Amino acid sequence: MRKVCGRILVVTGHQAGNLAYIPEKFPDVKLIYNPGYRDGMFSSVIIGLKNARFDRIFLMPGDIPAVREETYRIMAQSDCDILLPAYRDQTGHPVLIKRDCACKILQGPYRSLHEFILYHGYKTVETNDPGILLDTDFPRDFIRLERYMKIHDHHSYGAHRLRQDHQPPFPVL
């Protein structure tokens, strides 16, 4: 991600103190504290968007660490309003969103990023990256992640293609 993105904003919450060393070690990373972290992940999305000053923004949960750099590169080539990567027809992370589209999140009555994406429609790009689906919420997930990282070469990458529109089921006002 760091080779593709100009700046990285990390929204912290409960464990913010454990991450205080990051800006010193990685000057291109800025930490932003979310005092409302107990309100859920979407509150962190809102805080991040309020602090992002970019034309396009990757939204990436911190618990999906195995996304290949090439996935970011492929996605960055797109000019879609909202783009999701897919692996074997299953969408994952990160979400790439244009700034003007992201501003609608701040203006709307949305309860989650997922709700916003479904409402506004999106495009997908098929990748050869199972890492977009590797969520690490539980101890067993870390074992699976460790196994994945040992087996998969994160430098090899297969073909990709931009796929169909996923239009909202109703008109967007």
Question: Which helices and strands appear, and what pairs or packs with what?
Answer:
Layout: E1 8-12, H1 22-25, E2 29-33, H2 41-51, E3 56-59, H3 69-76, E4 82-87, E5 90-91, E6 95-98, H4 99-107, H5 113-120, E7 122-127, H6 139-151, E8 161-166
Domain MobA-like NTP transferase: 2-107
Pfam families: NTP_transf_3
EC number: 2.7.7.76
Low-confidence stretches: 154-162, 168-173
CATH superfamily: Spore Coat Polysaccharide Biosynthesis Protein SpsA, Chain A
- What's the domain count? 1
Overall pLDDT level:
87
CATH architecture: Alpha-Beta Complex
Described by strand count, sense and barrel closure, the largest sheet is: 6 strands, mixed
Number of strands: 8
Element order, helices and strands?
EHEHEHEEEHHEHE
Helix content: 25-40%
CATH class: Alpha Beta
* Derived structural class: alpha/beta
Keywords: Nucleotidyltransferase, Transferase
Pfam families: NTP_transf_3 (PF12804)
EC number: 2.7.7.76
Protein name: Molybdenum cofactor cytidylyltransferase
